[in-house]
Structure formats: structure tokens, C-alpha cells
TrEMBL record:
Residues 116-289 form the Mur ligase central domain. Coiled coil: none annotated. GO terms for molecular function: ATP binding; UDP-N-acetylmuramoylalanine-D-glutamate ligase activity. ATP binds at residues 118-124. It comes from the Bacteria. One of its GO terms (biological process) is cell division. It is an enzyme of class 6 (ligase). One of its GO terms (cellular component) is cytoplasm. The lineage of its organism: Bacteria, Bacillati, Bacillota, Bacilli, Bacillales. This is UDP-N-acetylmuramoylalanine--D-glutamate ligase. Its EC number is 6.3.2.9. It catalyses: UDP-N-acetyl-alpha-D-muramoyl-L-alanine + D-glutamate + ATP = UDP-N-acetyl-alpha-D-muramoyl-L-alanyl-D-glutamate + ADP + phosphate + H(+). The gene is murD.
Amino acid sequence: MKHLKGFPYKKALVVGLAKSGFAAADLLHTSGIDVKVNDLNADSTGEQAVKLAAAGIPLITGSHPFELLEDREVVIKNPGIPYENEMVMEALRRNIPVITEVELVTYLHDGPIIGITGSNGKTTTTTLVHRMLEEDRRNVRVAGNIGEVACEVARRTGPEDTMVIELSSFQLLGIDKLRLHTAVWLNIFDSHLDYHKTRDNYIEAKSRIMKNQLEEDSFIFNNDDSIVSTFREKSVAAAVPFTLEENGRGASADENHVYFDGEIVAERKKIVLVGEHNLQNCLAAVAACKSAGVTNEAIQAVLYSFQGVEHRLQYVEEKKKRYFYNDSKATNIRATRYALEAFENPVILLAGGLDRGNSFDGLAPYLKNVKHLVVFGETSAKLAEVAGQLDIPCTPVDSMEEAVARAYRNSKENDVILLSPACASWDQYRTFEERGNKFVEAVGNL
């Protein structure tokens, strides 16, 4: 496994453990950097803590003692820790650089890097790009929010490998030298404002995906997003748009085809992913891969077979001409809206979950194809109220198995049975993945 090359600091403090903190600490230590770890809530007897102790890496838990900063030259912050954290604020007050783990890739990987960000669609687009590159027989490694920690993946890459990294705004705030040979910015919606405080701060964080790009690099941007598209003028890299409008530049689509720079790349009717938002993700992936020289045949092979990322409008199966989709990742109204807009067939919608105090009136305009609503969890009554206002039949249930059974009982041929909860899962399930798995299991048991 590779070690850091040219890293300009000799003494580091990692703030926040979890996967990225542990990976960073291990990498720094094996690269000969003097490293300490500070985590307020870490379990000092947990697996990661035991491994740190075995390696001789100090772990300080329960508080943030400022004396840890006295001889430190850099702080590597867990992306989820806000900049208002007292240790982070004190480091900045002392003019100690604060970076996130993904910055370490700069000192590990010599090959091309494709970075992908956006408020929605990051994982789907990252997966599409990854698979298209693989189909084109490229050596490719995927990392970031989608799975493995970026610096951990970069330790195993060679110069012939392409890294594809899904990047959150939290990670992008902590980059300094990291250069993305291809930067993809999908969209921008109000999100994570509890962390960023203002919309402008959030937009600025996302725009850092262009930081350090050179003229020979590519900036892939959503020309249909009024905010994202303004940043084309600020990019020194070659700006490559993608758009749902018919357009001769970059990636575009009409009713029949997907194009790149006016050339037909794929037949639209053969694309498996449903929904306009997913078509945008496909176009972003086409723009990124065509900019990297991927063949049309490789792109087609993926677009014509890829059924979606697990729990993100994922096609599950067909039973007696009823079509089941798992969209458990839809934890807010906007995400459920996108899912509903993807279908022209009648829909039986399974929804509900954690009550965060919001109403569901904003969902009402998108329920026009919903023939029956099956509701569960803390928000059952609120969703049932919206259904009543629209005269949509509604059935409250206590479990996912019952929800699927009731939905199937009320369905007819060509109906879509869609789990798209519009709520977080934590009232009944530990994660949205667990909720989605229960849905898939219940469909299999019908």
C-alpha cells in the first residue's frame, strides 16, 4: 500500500473518528507523520480505538483539549463535524490549516480523477460513470460518499487507474490542492443549511469542485440549473454542458436519442432508468465519459442495462404485470416528487416515517397519478389527511409486510407499486437501507 508523497506537514491532529478519521489516521501514521486523534464521543474500547492503540496512535475522547493543538501543523476534520466545533475554531484561530480526508488523495494518486457533486443524483451518476469506464475496459476505482473512504482507495491505485469520487459539500470545504481532471456539478437545491447556515455558503462549498482545475481539464455542468450554469464563466477548464433541451453542445436529449456534441450516442427508449431527474444523471455521465474518450458502445451497454442504485428508484421486480420500485432513499418531499414524476402508469404509493414537524401539502400537486396511498409510521395521520383532501383512498398499516400486501391487493395490471416515503426512517428503522430491504423482502414474499 502506498504512503503519502510530498505531504507538507509532519505533525497532524485528526478530529472525529468514524471511517474517514480512522483511514486518515492510519495513512498518516504509516507515512511517518506524527498523528493524534481527538473524538468527543468515540468508544475507547471499540474496534477502531483498539486498532489505533495497537498502532501507538493516541486517541483522546470525552473532550476537546486545546493543548492538543500546541505542536500540530494541520488538522484533518471529519466532514460531518461543523466548523463551529470548538477544536476546529481554535485551530483556525491559530492559523492551523483544516482539511478533510479527501485532500490526502492529492498526495497518493497520480492518475485521472473524476469528482461528482450535487444536491441530488450524486450516487446514481457516480455509479453510471464508474460502470461506463469499466465497460470501456478502463482501470477504475470508486470512492467517497458512495462507499470506501477516498484516501483508503487511493492507497491501492496505480497511475493507470481512474478514480471516481462522489463528493459532498462537507468534503469540498476541506480541499486545498486536490485537482479534479473532470468535475461534475449536477444541480443545487436548498440542503444542509443547518451546517452551512446560508444558501450562499452552500453554493460556494459546492463550487469548490472547480478549484485547482487547469485548462486541459473538463467542467461538466447542468445547463438547466440557473445557478450551476452561471459558474461556467468562472471555470478555467473546458466547460461541457448537459441539458434536457435539444442542443448541439455537450450532452443533450430529445424524444428519440441522447446526443453528445450533436452525435447520436444512445436511443432514449432503451434507457432503463426512469424519470426526468435520472435522464439528467445519465446525460451528466455521458458528458463526463465522452469527455474522457469513452466509446458509445460502452455507454450504451450501461444505459440499456443499469436498473438504478439500491434504494434510489430501484426497480425491484414485476409480479403479474405489477411493477415494484424501491425508493427508500426518498427521505423528503422533493425526492418523492421526482419519483412520482417518473411514472405515467397509475401508482400505489407507500409513504410515511419520522415526523419532523412539516406538513405534506407540498406533495399534493404530484399525487395526480396516485390511485391509492398506503401510509405507515409517525406521519401516517398527516399523509392520510392529504389523501382525504384529494379523495385518494388511503390505508394505514403497521409494518412494511402489511404495506406491500395491501398495495398488491389494491393493484391492477400495469400499476406501479412504489415505496417513496418522503420521510426519514428512524421512527421504525435504523436506516433507509433497512427500510428498503424490508420492502424488497416483502415483495419477494408475496
